[in-house]
Design goal:
The complex is a heterodimer of chains A (356) and B (563).
Chain A lengths: L18 H14 L1 H27 L4 H8 L9 H7 L7 H14 L13 H36 L4 H15 L2 H15 L20 H38 L2 H9 L3 H25 L2 H4 L1 H7 L4 H10 L3 H29 L5
Helix pairs in contact in A: 2-15, 6-7, 6-9, 6-11, 6-15, 7-9, 8-9, 8-13, 9-11, 10-11, 11-15, 13-14, 14-15
Chain B lengths: L1 H22 L6 E5 L20 H5 L4 E3 L7 E3 L2 E6 L5 E6 L13 H13 L12 E8 L2 E6 L6 H6 L6 H4 L19 E7 L3 E6 L18 E5 L4 H9 L5 E2 L6 H4 L8 E3 L7 E6 L9 H10 L2 H8 L22 H10 L6 H10 L20 E5 L5 H16 L3 E5 L3 H9 L5 E4 L7 H9 L21 H10 L5 H18 L2 E6 L5 E3 L3 E2 L16 H7 L4 E2 L2 H5 L1
Parallel strand pairs in B: 1-10, 1-11, 14-15, 14-16
Antiparallel strand pairs in B: 2-3, 4-5, 5-7, 6-7, 8-9, 9-10, 11-18, 12-18, 13-16, 13-17, 19-20
Helix pairs in contact in B: 8-11, 9-12, 10-16, 14-15, 15-16
Classes of the chains: A mainly alpha (356), B alpha+beta (563).
């Protein structure tokens, strides 16, 4: 038996070392690889470009944060109060270059100062309260839709022409092609409003106190998450399923699968350990990439289900031209995308030695 | 005989017991509100630009309350009265006896003086620009405060009376008033105890020391707590409202009879009192052809006002009168100005008249392409702006731009996002736009914010609603004269002249008085303002009224009171 079986083209001789030492070897190889050093430089440049764009783009939008704050009162706030508000927002004025330097400093210190629309509440506080809900919902939703989609994709490819392949796959693909808000609104209207099975808004019952040790609270969180989770999974699964099925089919035609079958290995073992294990590589990279977008990506879910989260906060911040808050959120998105890409790069190197 | 007498006595006793019982207002319960709050952080500092909504008049209270349905008459609140000095250069307020802060201390003149000295010493806290006219504050005695003004300014009582009073003993040690978020507020208001706060709701509970009592001496408010629930926009909030999850809401709801009332006509109610600011169509008078009053007049005659209010606004309001003063200002309307407008036919739907007026003013289709031309030869093409997503206004603007096309003008609808829309109005980079007006205690605020030349900054930014950029020395003089007299007859005379200016020059086209959004459900609470008993504006975001409503409503049964 040879370890090279799962890695066509792997260069190492098959001396079958222990799993742990093999892993350590690989990790060592990753960190010393030229590939990764090059990538690291690339990340530095990309991060700097993103940070700078993050400063410029909000300021290119027409509208001034102080004026917009006034506008939100629709004439109920006296224009004479302008001076008072400007005095509070001392940091908004000043030459652009000076603002840029201040901004760079705020990134290094991770202190973005007070948000404008929620003045004087610090940006950090605004972000942190909604971030956990985004991470919770987005984390569970992406992992579940990826796992379900991938598993169904494996089954569809394994039993090509079976019911999963010919019925479920087309349905999932069609639903996945619907605009997300349509599916979400439909779910809210039918399951939430007409049938009244699920709550239509919020992350938990607003009449319950937030307490992570209380089972009543946790049940409320789970119950409120079902409908948003369902809509995301229903719309996102089709893509993963289709991708995995196609990867699988490619792998299934490889010689080593035929050989495994010829040796009389159990079907399940061939399907999962030989075929799926190799077919999952490209989709794992895609999954890591998609993870980077979750912070902002849940905007529609948040709006339809009034789920507290980053996406809506971001929308409010953009509408109010709240530069510090936009920058704070955008920095987190940038960091998440870069981090996810870095992880994807690493796993790529780990799984495919040719990249080293 | 005796038996019957005995029975009668028992009946009377029972009846009187039950009557006494009926007089006791049920207490308790948590009112669930959505007033459009967009929560970004825990901030109960009333002098921040935009603190949490309940800070204003639920936690902190002003000396006077101006209930919009009372036509500008002040309701004494933390003050029992006020009086201007002989020379109108000072105003003295008498502070109410027996008001306690939520921590048990007593309110006195020092708290009031502290608050106003704060505005003078820390300009960043002076959100109402009190420092503009206030010279100094004097504590006359424990319960009397005298405000010395730097000039005659007869609106001083409105502005001074409207400021939230903060406790000197709690606030004196604050390090930076601008950065203070006041997470544990001490106030005189009905709801001062922050019992819960998280990213999707916050709850305030009653102040055990609250000073207001009802006619029978019972302490107000009757309800225990009020919870603000946050929604990501109107639609989910309206869904929760229709589901009966909310008690008190201030949202625009499309087609409300079908969507909300029909769900449960017994328990669902609303009243869109047209007492809001008049919504107007502004045009940029620094540009041709909008600089020509005849062109603006022709525009006003091209608009099908009934279609705008019945289709665009779902029939929630009616076309405005020619002076743009809604039903809230009925007693102020100048009959001469209305007669003038009747003479010219302006602000009344008359497409033929509009075309005749355009022809007469020289805006004819000189090149025969179906679009009227400027005297210089260019086609008259303009954009009508409205905020993206404000559906009632968008429909209204679509109707109007069709109306303009019908009289031979090439008008197209443009829907920028809120920030871009507002910047265009302020910087005069728009052609025509729908926009709000100002509703104040008197029509003064409406005309001031529309016409006062000072409001256009030296850099050319049009503040308040001076977006049309139509100004005149005459209007400026009238507006400043209004603040220099306390004589109601003179006020009336000045407002009459302003109305005349308005109809003669048409700085804006009045469309309709703004409906004030307000819905309620009576599953749990009763006593909300109704059309028949409209004791205050129902909208929870109208804070003067909200302070009155919160002390009027009460729960209806054991399950509601126990929540």
């Amino acid at each position: 038996m040879t370890t090279a079986i799962g890695k066509p083209g792997a260069g190492k001789p098959a001396d079958n070392p222990g799993f742990l030492s093999k892993l350590l070897d690989s990790v060592y190889a990753i960190f010393t690889s030229r590939f990764l050093r090059r990538r690291f430089m690339f990340y530095l440049v990309a991060a700097f470009a993103a940070i700078t764009l993050n400063f410029i783009i909000p300021r290119l939008m027409p509208g001034d944060p102080v004026q917009l704050l006034f506008a939100r009162f629709q004439g109920k706030l006296d224009p004479r109060a302008f001076e008072a508000i400007k005095a509070q927002f001392g940091f908004v004025d000043g030459p652009l270059f000076e603002q840029y330097l201040l901004y760079l400093r705020s990134i290094v210190t991770l202190d973005f100062g007070p948000s404008i629309m929620g003045f004087p509440v610090p940006v950090f506080q605004v972000i942190s309260s909604s971030l956990r809900w985004t991470l919770l919902l987005a984390g569970i939703a992406s992992v579940m839709s990826y796992l379900i989609g991938t598993f169904l994709g494996v089954l569809a490819a394994w039993r090509r022409g079976g019911r999963i392949d010919t019925v479920l796959l087309p349905i999932a693909s069609v639903i996945g092609a619907f605009p997300y808000f349509f599916v979400a609104l439909l779910a809210v209207y039918i399951l939430g409003f007409q049938l009244d099975i699920f709550p239509t808004s919020h992350a938990y019952d607003t009449a319950i106190r937030q307490d992570w040790r209380s089972t009543e609270f946790i049940w409320s969180v789970v119950y409120h998450m079902m409908l948003p989770l369902f809509t995301i999974i229903v719309t996102a699964t089709g893509g993963w399923m289709l991708g995995m099925r196609n990867n699988m089919i490619g792998v299934l035609s490889q010689d080593y699968i035929v050989m495994a079958e010829a040796k009389g290995l159990a079907d399940r073992r061939i399907m999962l350990m030989y075929a799926a294990r190799n077919a999952i590589l490209p989709s794992l990279t895609a999954f890591a990439m998609s993870f980077g977008f979750i912070i902002a990506g849940l905007l529609l879910t948040e709006i339809v289900f009034s789920y507290p989260g980053m996406g809506y906060t971001f929308l409010l911040a953009v509408n109010a031209r709240d530069y510090p808050l936009i920058q704070g959120i955008y920095l987190m998105i940038t960091a998440a995308v870069l981090l996810a890409n870095f992880i994807a790069d690493m796993s790529y190197v780990l799984l495919d030695p040719r990249a080293r | 005989m005796n038996k019957i007498r005995f029975l009668a006595v028992v009946m009377v006793v029972l009846l009187s017991i039950s009557l006494v019982g009926a007089q006791m207002t049920p207490r308790g319960g948590t009112v669930v509100v959505s007033d459009g709050e967009q929560l970004v952080g825990k901030n109960f500092n009333p002098f921040s630009p935009d603190p949490l909504n309940f800070t204003d008049r639920f936690i902190y209270e002003p000396m006077l309350i101006f209930n919009p349905v009372d036509g500008g008459v002040a309701t004494p609140w933390l003050a029992t009265g006020y009086e201007y000095g002989e020379d109108l250069q000072s105003v003295t307020f008498d502070i109410r006896e027996g008001v306690m802060w939520s921590d048990g201390e007593t309110l006195d003149a020092n708290d009031v003086a502290f608050t106003f000295n704060l505005f003078l010493e820390v300009p960043a806290t002076d959100k109402a620009a009190i420092g503009d006219f206030l010279e100094s504050v004097e504590v006359v005695d424990g319960m009397t405060v005298k405000f010395n003004l730097n000039r005659v300014y007869t609106l001083a009582h409105e502005l001074i009376g409207g400021q939230m009073i903060v406790p000197a003993h709690d606030w004196a040690d604050v390090e930076d008033y601008a950065l203070f978020t006041n997470s544990e507020p001490v106030g005189t208001g009905a709801m001062t105890d922050v019992s819960d706060f998280n990213e999707q709701s916050y709850t305030l509970c009653r102040n055990e020391n609250y000073w207001r009592v009802d006619e029978s001496g019972e302490q107000l408010p009757y309800v225990d707590c009020i919870r603000q629930v946050l929604f990501q926009g109107n639609d989910p909030a309206n869904l929760a409202l229709i589901n009966g999850e909310l008690d008190w809401v201030g949202n625009f709801v499309p087609d409300i009879e079908q969507t909300f009332i029909a769900e449960n006509p017994e328990k669902h109610g609303y009243y869109f009192w047209p007492g809001g600011a008049t919504v107007q169509l502004y045009s940029n008078t620094s540009k041709e052809p909008f600089s020509d009053v005849n062109f603006r007049r022709a525009l006003s005659m091209a608009i099908d006002y009934n279609a705008v209010t019945s289709i665009g606004m779902y029939g929630y309001t009616n076309p405005a009168n020619a002076v743009g003063l809604g039903p809230r200002y009925d007693t102020w309307v100048n009959a001469d100005a209305i007669a003038y407008a009747d003479g010219t036919g302006q602000t009344r739907y008359n497409p033929e008249g509009a075309m005749a007026l355009l022809d007469e003013a020289g805006y004819v289709d000189s090149d025969g392409d179906g679009v009227r031309n400027l005297p210089g030869g260019d086609n008259i093409e303009f954009k009508v702006q409205v905020v993206n997503g404000w559906t009632d206004w968008v429909t209204s603007v679509q109707i109007m731009s069709q109306n303009f096309q019908d009289v031979g003008l090439s008008a197209v609808v443009e829907t920028p996002d809120f920030g871009a829309w507002f910047a265009a109005l302020q910087n005069a980079t728009y052609d025509v736009s729908i926009g709000w007006g100002t509703a104040g205690n008197t029509p003064y605020n409406y005309f001031r914010n529309l016409l006062l030349s000072e409001l256009i900054s030296d850099e050319g930014v049009a503040n308040a609603e001076t977006w049309s950029r139509w100004t005149s020395d005459e209007a400026d003089a009238l507006l400043s004269a209004f603040t220099e007299t306390a004589d109601p007859a003179q006020h009336m005379d000045i407002v009459n002249q302003l109305q005349m200016l308005y109809v003669e020059n048409m700085p804006a086209i009045p469309l309709f008085p703004g409906p004030t959004w307000y819905e309620y459900t009576t599953y749990r609470f009763t006593g909300f303002p109704t059309e028949d008993n409209y004791y205050a504006q129902g909208s929870p975001w109208e804070r003067n009224s909200a302070a009155i409503v919160i002390s009027t409503i009460h729960c209806i049964d054991e399950s509601a009171c126990g929540q």
